[in-house]
Known about the structure:
- The protein is an alpha/beta fold.
- It is about 45% helix and about 20% strand.
- It folds into 2 domains: about 5-115 and about 270-280, Quinolinate phosphoribosyl transferase, N-terminal domain (Aldehyde Oxidoreductase, domain 3); about 150-260, Aldolase class I (TIM Barrel, Alpha-Beta Barrel).
- It is elongated, with a radius of gyration of 23 Å.
- The model has no long low-confidence stretch (mean pLDDT about 95).
Amino acid sequence: xxxxxxxxxxxxxxxxxxxxxxxxxxxxxxxxxxxxxxxxxxxxxxxxxxxxxxxxxxxxxxxxxxxxxxxxxxxxxxxxxxxxxxxxxxxxxxxxxxxxxxxxxxxxxxxxxxxxxxxxxxxxxxxxxxxxxxxxxxxxxxxxxxxxxxxxxxxxxxxxxxxxxxxxxxxxxxxxxxxxxxxxxxxxxxxxxxxxxxxxxxxxxxxxxxxxxxxxxxxxxxxxxxxxxxxxxxxxxxxxxxxxxxxxxxxxxxxxxxxxxxxxxxxxxxxxxxxxxxxxxxx
Length: 283
């Protein structure tokens, strides 16, 4: 599994948060040696994400548990689908249940919303990308879920691309000053990163273009102004639309010809997909 080490650490932190010194209800009420089987049941339509994380949750908690998948990440699921089964120790399954469901429901919710955005613009060449507006500590999983839903990842953090925003421009004095400072930083540190500049009007767009920014983010532009900016840039930089993007307007924004549309709501306003785990004693 990609990012296996990082994912294991996230799962272990979730265990420590939820189980702590022990699941006292299960330890008190379920006799040792009781075995069961439990089915993950979809109670809504959506796109599945996190099924491999769910499997890893159970195997990290108790390697003797048997996990069977019936759907894969990125698959469409419908109400009533049995997504997976886990079999073995009842105490282990009950103790790991909430951690597993939390990952599976959140990631599937992100993938489902991402898919809705991707479907809206599939007739265009534009790509929907995510943002850094993720749950603290869960960015990796949030971004995996975005990809499972058919959208794309932007930068992972503050360390892998320059993104000059309005406050950077204010602090440095101008777009030109900020871009030149980033280039000087790369020269001193012998590094190479793309430079993206956030602009809010056509005057700033021209300044970012004159400074040869790699990507120009058109922040909160009206559709007509965005058309004008895309024509002005004329493929001399990549373009990204940002701010106020919803399922209601994303198609019109994509049809302006921008290369990317960033949507913070993919991860910051996620609605968990309704999935339950139903347990029965093994015969």
